[in-house]
Batch of 2 targets.
Target 1
Amino acid sequence: MAKTKHSPQAKLVGTAALFTLSGFALLALKNLDVQTALMALVVPIAFIIVCTLIPKLFPADRLLLTLVNFLCVLGIMVLYRISPEKGMTQAVNYGFGVIFMIVCMLIIRHMHRLKALVWLAAATAVVLMLLPLAIGKEVNGAQAWISIVGVNFQPSEIVKVVLLIVVAYFLSKRRILIAISYAGVCLALLMLQKDLGTALLYYAVTLSMLFASTGSFALLGGGLAGGAAAGMLGYSMFSHVKRRVAIWRDPWFDYNGAGYQVVQSLIAIVNGGLTGVGLGVGNTHVIPAHDTDFIFSVILNEFGAIFGICVVFIYVMIFLRGIAISLRCNHRFHALMALGGSLFIAFQAFVIIGGNIKMIPLTGVTLPFVSYGGSSLLSSLGIIGILQGIESINEDHIAADAMMATIGDEV
Amino acid sequence: MKLLRKNIGMIAAVMTILILSLIAYGTYSVSTQGNRWFASGANTYIRQMKRDVIAGDIYDRNGIVLATTDAEGKRIYQEDAGARRAVVHVIGDTANNVGYGVESFMSNYLYGFSASYFQKLAHALRGEKMHGSNVTLSIDSNLSNYVASIFPAGKKGAVVVMNYATGELMSLQSFPSFDPNNITENVKTDPLQPFWNNATRWTSAPGSTFKIITLAAALKNIPGAVDKSFECSGELPVMDSIVRDAGNASHGRLSLKRAFAQSCNVTFANIALQMGDERLKEAARLFGTGDYFLFQDIVVEDSAYPTAGRSDKELAWTGVGQSALQMTPLHMTMIAGSIAYDGVMMEPRILQRAVTGNGEITAQMTPKHYLQPLDKTTADLICDYMVEAVRSGTGSRANVSGHRIAGKTGTAEIDGQEQSNAWFVGFIDEPQYPYAVCVVVMEGGGGGSVAAPIAGKIFSAITGASTSK
């Protein structure tokens, strides 16, 4: 696709950069410091570079790339507004995330040489998942975090990327039992970590991949029944699950105690109204976990419901771009991986936004690309790297086909 | 590959619908419950706004100032302590001890949250404090004072007076009351819980006033019920319990109309048993029991028909308004109102209008139909029965000579209470006085002897006051 001077792509990147610039400029006026003013320049420029440079290196899906990066810089902006230190850290995370995304793109592009590594990656992932149980610490009722040389991270986030590759690989080789067993082991480890939000994601994504690969409604029904049984078991086994469900049913019953989080989230949403109270002037500090679980409520509060609906549509578009990539694939392996990756992002966004607006019980997962946290940003961008890698292979195939067609014409 | 693509397409469709349902659910829940979340005491944003905005005034329907703001920004209520106490549960207080009073539930008007951005900007540029809208309520302050003066001192209870043709609430009172200007430790620790609004947020078994619903169910489900005669021997054994009549009376052979007027438990328990649980439950549902009340102006606790352990014994007791029924005094008023208004139940309203500082009207009350639980013919018939109950039945002490008063008494026995809760619901069956009334005196004794006389005085006040104009 040749880039013209005023392509829709360039306009989109320009508009998003302008949005980021004005947002940070507003924060600079509020904070009156040099750092914020610098951010108002650096962040939009970094955004433009990432959005225009990567497609020059590989044939990538530009719309997908732009939307994802927009959500990332939106996250940096909102986090910077909540606390400049967190915003700066997230900006650094973003830098690492982009590198990881490129690495994942390269891995997928050259996967045919790395097939032996699938088993190794699978084993490494299991070891990683065992670590929190051995040396982890408990956060919000889940034992899912480890600390290595002073860096905290959540192995289950990084394992998402591995799981995607491993499950898609075995399903594409029709070795369904291995795929199910591997996903089962990962799920069991997550249950042991009591990280039920992430377990729900893994479960939904692998079940969908399984169904897509086999088309068997019997397997789908069995999987759903098994999930329901596991859910019931989780409900009766873990007190914090029971509490979450009770809060979901009526957060107002104990609005200063157990229901406080959800109640403050709902209040923040209605305070924002359609157009929001404005960046930097909302009462965001009263919303608990405003940088992670409830960042969407902060966005609704300060930017308003119309903008919030746009953010939901951005997730829909990201998802559908991923599905489009999946549908263009020539290999089952790539198609399944692209499907799983798109689902990871979309389902995670659904679960946490649904929890914020009290549509479903709250599960502590992050809002992809936006929430504070290196592990989460890294894994989400890694998944996008996988999607982009597959897209680049698709483009190569299309180019090759076109070449063949021209040769045919000449003959 | 083809099959795989088809499956991917299916999954994509499901996931897309899931995400889009977020928007549908969010829009629905904010539009139906958003004002409740906003007005909650947990909203720190309102507290913040209160410092920057001069709150609007609150008037009663006749223009009496119920609340205003002085030069220092302090909230001033009526001068007379009795008058302050009579409307405090409607108005609420600045500290939000009363949940969902007008002070918090109407804060979007009072604190100008509904003002446009240009208005807000203009005020910010001029450096003035913004003025919230003035709000006029349907409440009648003088009538409320009068009601408070005749309610038995020291008793817990509630009184509701509602215009059944428009839904406007004239008086909505909870006892004991308190003075918003003088909230002492005693008030906060009083076991009778003066902050709690018993009229809207206290639910209990309504005793024999529920027979209105049992009667409506019987007229619908038992053919020829009007002409049937019933035998009352004074007691009806059901399983391990015996349904008795008040004072162990035995009514002998009597018509349905007399059974209603005499509030015969044996007959109505029999009717409930004859119909079965489903039909009685359905009748209660038609009157709004089990509804999720999401009224525009007022927060009302939901009423509930019991569902656990439905044996014949429970059913028989439900038919006479006992067992685990949960109804609020306001809901019982609405039920009586629907009998009076040809079977149409109006949504209760409190806000008549909101006017900004510039005289712009931002809200204006329009009556809203809430439900139609029964047709006009059945409503007229039940109305006749209720008139009979007041003329020559248990509700005789609510009667006002020269007027057509309808009503039903209730004496609800509650486990663990020494005395019964006294109930009366009724209305004036005259188009020029379209008012329904509910009186509850908790641990007050008999509905006919304690609640009905209070209702009678309110009916006299309404009709007398209006005729003297």
Note: The first strand of chain B starts at residue 53 and ends at 54.
Target 2
Amino acid sequence: MLELFLSFINKFLGQAPLLLGTVVFIGYMLLGKKWYESLAGFIKTFVGFKILQVGTGGLVGTFRPIITSLSERYGIEAFVIDPYFGQTSATEFLDTVDSLAFVGYVMLIAFAFNIVLVLFRKYTKIRTLFITGHIMYQQSAVLLWAMYWVIEGVGGKSVSPFLIAVVGLLMGTYWSVMSNLIIEATQEVTDGAGFTIGHQQMFGAWVAWKVAGKIGNKEHDVNKVNTPGFLSILNDNVVANALIMTVFVGTIMFILGPETFEYNKTKYFFATYVWETCAYFAVYITILLTGVRMFVAELTASFQGISEKLLSGAVPAVDCAVTFGFSPQAPSYGFIFGFFGQMIAIFTLILLESPVLIIAGFICLFFDNGTLAVFANKAGGRRAAAIIPFVAGLIQVFGSALVLTALRGPEEVIGWMGMFDWATLWAGTTLLTNVAGIIVPILLIPLLLIIPQLQYRRHKETYFTTMRDE
Amino acid sequence: MLKVLAACGNGMGSSLIIKMKIQKVLKDMGLECDVHHASVGQAKSDARNFDLVLVSEMFVKEFANAGNAKIVGLINLLSEEEIRTKVEAALAK
């Protein structure tokens, strides 16, 4: 009997797509959907997850030979700072220690903890609920990977239940506290649209918002400036990914030279081979996104339905790009200046002969610095929207390079998130944990929970009025 | 049955939000619909096969060759009121 139970845990609840599919199925049943609709939800989640794995496997397979040649030749390793490269590293690595499904548990614990914190908002002062499904999955994966690697990584065993619980609670605390922190600024940026940011740079956007007023003038709005027209091709993510990867990875491939790679010389010039290899990043990212889109759509519908039943007044924490409509020029501005910042930082790494080389990724360049620019512009105009993303670009590269010195090793590792909070808060947490152990993530939970209390003290009377229906 | 496509930069977060909102709005308007979501890059090539395409205002110009599909640009993706007004106007055309 016990054996049957254990093998059920292993072969069912221990398999990420089955687990997530079941969560969706149960969620839909609880929401009163028909059995066949719930079944369809299960299937879409399962298939979506499998498509996602085709994408992540392809990314590692495409990038790994290039990293290997680079480190054999020059003793340096290259990593891409892009959330999907971070996610790929996390899930492909966790799969090698039979722990991929635990990402699902971390996400569920974190989401449940977020709900609990909102339910007890009278005491916790948390008003926001994280419903950005793809980010929730991604961050749970990356945080679990980073914490596991610096705490338990040496043994090569599966992640321990205790660590899963700690990471889940810490993740939920971060979602709750940081999306709650940025609520007032988001209201300001969006003219009171009634949502907050639930993404990768909530702390960053708050810093940008606070600093911007001191370095610029908000009257000089960036939306009165025209950005160069060619930037509009970046609106197409397929084009943007292929272009940026060709620029960076293509350069590395040319430096390594044609003799490093095995390719069919009757079929390709070296240049066309480089182009095709780099275009494959766009191919696998598109596959990966298709998979994530499919399973996250189901998961989010199920999560959102459940949370609406439980908490009607919570402010939804959503994707950062939702703010872009309110400040359409700012993201391009952030992209340009963040790009300069990242370039300078990358060349500095090369000059310093750093063992870790960073490759810029499109999502981090555009969405992260774009969001910082939106918040910076609202409080400090175009000057702030230029300076802050520039500095953020430096931070994204240096912070990620530092944390990768601790995380590199396994061959599945091809990158890190790079986004502002991950190059600062989480890079710092990972490095500290590497030295001091599991006490760091445990202590961080109560420390973070102090933040909403401080916010509440500042404006007690209006604090809860941002919540709907209250 | 109205075929609707919601699109945003990566086709992950914002377009999913539009999708959930438009489903609710069209249901309230008493219209049957089938809503998909995608990235702008993918949506551009696919827009012709839909009746209605919803995107953030800044992406509207990307959809110049969308055939008969009606393009609706939104400022606040979470505002059911804005979506309803703009969709009603677009469908009346």
Note: Chain B has one domain: 2-92.
